[in-house]
Amino acid sequence: MNRMIDVIVIVGGGSAGWLTAGYVAREHRERIARGDLRVVLCESPNIPAIGVGEGTWPTMRATLARLGISETSLITRCHASFKQGSRFSGWHHASAPGHDYYHPFAFAPGGADGALASYGALTDQWSDFSRLFGAQQSICEAQRAPKQITHAEFDGALNYGYHLDVTAFAQLLSEHCQAELGVEHVLADVQEVLRDETGAIAALRLPGDERLSGDLFVDCTGFKALLLGDALKVPFRSVAQVLFNDAALTTHVNYPSADSEIASCTHASATTHGWIWDIGLSSRRGVGHVFSSRYTDVAQVAGTLSAYLGVDEASAEFRHISFSPGCRERVWQDNCVAIGLSAGFVEPLEASALVMIELSAMELAEGLPRHSSQLPVVAKRFNTAFAYRWDRVVDFLKLHYALSKRDDSEYWRDNRAATSVPESLQQLLTLWRYRAPQSNDFPMAREVFQSLSYQYVLSGLGEAPLLGEQVSSALDERAQRALAQNKQTINHLMSQLPGNRELIHKIHRFGLSTI
């Protein structure tokens, strides 16, 4: 039966549920004010949040500004600090643990066409590409902040995202969405998903036989996928044959003192059987070891993580998280769309989980159908876009493993094997064997990873293109200008930018300007 779409029911809270509620309510605030649209979020009071990753991309700044949440509130309430990219240690070779490379957030000027990357390869400076043509690596190494207290909210000298406490973040979102955006909140466990004669979702049965009816349902129930998976039976597409990791041990680490410096980037350290993330919040560090249960066990990983932390294994407290890497074959079925872990999850590398939530919530809000007759068209477009994005996430994460030269375990040898590399990534690597990645290699609007991100990983892992040519005078002139400008920029920023801890203290005391 055709009908107007007037009630949006989001099932599940956390970052996924509340970001989705916020985007939809903010985009359609006039309809909510008129009373012809309701956004209802129903979440269980008994399910704890899963905080696999606590890093965001710079996109979160625009998201917060769009929702009307101040940066000062995020910093002070969510134990947040500034993230300027990722630092990778030990990924190149097991015998070279001191070999680091960076994937910074700041784009090198003019880097999208691959010309500066080509210059680095032609002049045997490929491995220093991110340092030579961008200031952010040097700023991260000095543990400086990307902005000053005089910068306005969401503004800065360099591009940045955040490290944050996801539980506190969800609470901040919840309060804001209810108080400022008109989102209705229902605390209840879903007893049953009720479907109509067409197979679409009609309502949710809550305790006491109460019914929560809706026109469009958003599944934000995490790995359980209560609506899209359990009720609508949309199959799960595993990528375990490509990305092997399916578990993590996590913990929190206190700083030695309240004045301890805060790292400016996520630190990802490769180990024999996986890798360790180390994230600096303002109040603590979040640390975890990602691994594959096919190649090791919890006891061995616990020993590795304890050694990394320098603690006695017997006294260490680790939380064990299991997950299945992959995504649903369709994230939109009938009148139900999945966002967050219910749509898919691969692993925490490069912190893609939150940005996929942002993209999904944004596109749902912007393309929200008004009538049920539009659902098949909107669903098809949404599914096509996100199937592409999930494939690109898998490709980019696999790139880190496929190009590694580590040979110290079966885990790494199998990760490097051509049989575990998707054909789409193999095709790109064939192109990049003789040229640097370019922006036109990635045609989708709102690409998850840009060409420069691939350049950083390829250069960091020593995979230089075979150009077979000389540096032209035009390229040399362009590169020399960029090199000189970058040196000036680094010197200027080093003299101006405070340390992360210093800036966080000032924000807690004074706040940031909204102008």
Structure notes:
By secondary structure, the chain is α+β, with helices and mostly antiparallel strands. Among the domains are: 180 residues, FAD/NAD(P)-binding domain (3-Layer(bba) Sandwich), CATH 3.50.50; 76 residues, Alpha-Beta Plaits. Helix content is 37%, strand content 18%. It is built from 17 helices and 21 strands. It has a seven-stranded mixed β-sheet with strand order 5-4-14-15-16-13-17. Strands 7-2-1-11-20-19 form a six-stranded mixed β-sheet. A three-stranded antiparallel β-sheet has the order 8-9-10. It is globular, with a radius of gyration of 23 Å. Its EC number is 1.14.19.-. Keywords: Oxidoreductase. It comes from Gilvimarinus japonicus.
Secondary-structure blueprint of this entry?
Blueprint: E1 7-11, H1 14-27, H2 29-34, E2 38-43, H3 59-67, H4 71-77, E3 81-83, E4 85-89, E5 100-104, H5 115-122, H6 129-132, H7 136-141, E6 161-163, H8 166-180, E7 184-187, E8 192-195, E9 201-206, E10 210-213, E11 216-219, H9 226-231, E12 236-238, E13 247-253, E14 266-271, E15 274-280, E16 285-291, H10 298-309, E17 319-322, E18 326-328, E19 332-333, E20 336-338, E21 344-345, H11 352-366, H12 375-402, H13 410-416, H14 423-432, H15 451-460, H16 473-496, H17 500-510
Instruction: State the oligomer.
Output: single chain
Structural class: alpha+beta
Q: Trace the largest sheet across and list its strands.
A: 5-4-14-15-16-13-17
Supply the CATH class of the domain at 7-54 and 165-237 and 325-383: Alpha Beta
Q: Beta-strand level of the residues, as a percent range?
A: 15-25%
CATH topology of the domain at 7-54 and 165-237 and 325-383: FAD/NAD(P)-binding domain
CATH superfamily of the domain at 7-54 and 165-237 and 325-383: FAD/NAD(P)-binding domain
Helicity level: 25-40%
Number of strands: 21
The Cα radius of gyration reads 23 Å
EC number: 1.14.19.-
InterPro entries: FAD/NAD-bd_sf, Flavin-dep_Halogenase_NPB, Flavin_halogenase, Trp_halogen
Organism: Gilvimarinus japonicus
Protein name: Tryptophan halogenase family protein
